[in-house]
């Protein structure tokens, strides 16, 4: 009888603990798996492409200062030296080449090349942020920095444990879920560096299957003009 009484006393407690455990498992996001070949370090080189705007300024010959946009053929045209290929070079590499070319014409060809805008170097931030839309990415940028540039999280609605980064890899859209809970609490978190044309999306609810979410929901959320229609969804 005593054993039965103990069982009746502890049974409700066991049921409560088991129910709480199951509920926690259902509401917590699953462990997040990174891209198989994810590179969390920043890109080593930022090169010029068609549509990028640059400025060329001379230290001792200001009359030759130029503001140029890289043409569709990847070239710019400058005074004294004519056409120069700019696409595929970093601003510093282009500077070194221009100094060599101008050294034939000028006694002191010291100059600097500044990239003012990178036409194709932008990402899109959407979902529960204060200012969704495109964000320029002139150099290295992490996913969290992109969210901050988009005004930060709408903390009343954002599921910060399931922020999704979508990337075009070899013509296919692949995704990665990121957990920003620790970062927002001031704890150290490993940065995830973005690449041009990445999409950062902050959802309202936890996303358990990133690939399925991309195939079922992404085109409904992000403006269609952002995508190349020839790229298939994974």
How would you characterize this protein structure?
This protein has 234 residues and is an alpha+beta fold. The chain folds into two domains: 65 residues, 2-Layer Sandwich (wza like fold), CATH 3.30.1950.10; 106 residues, Roll (Outer membrane lipoprotein wza fold like), CATH 3.10.560. The chain has five helices and ten strands. The strands form three sheets. It has a five-stranded mixed beta sheet, sandwiched between helices. A three-stranded antiparallel beta sheet has the order 2-1-5, covered by helices on one side. The protein has a two-stranded antiparallel sheet with strand order 3-4. A hairpin with a 7-residue loop joins β1 and β2. The radius of gyration is 26 Å and the shape is elongated. It starts with a helix and ends in a 13-residue tail after the last helix. The C terminus is likely disordered.
Summarize this entry quickly:
With 234 residues, this protein is α+β, with helices and mostly antiparallel strands. The chain contains five helices and ten strands. 26% of the residues lie in helices and 23% in strands.
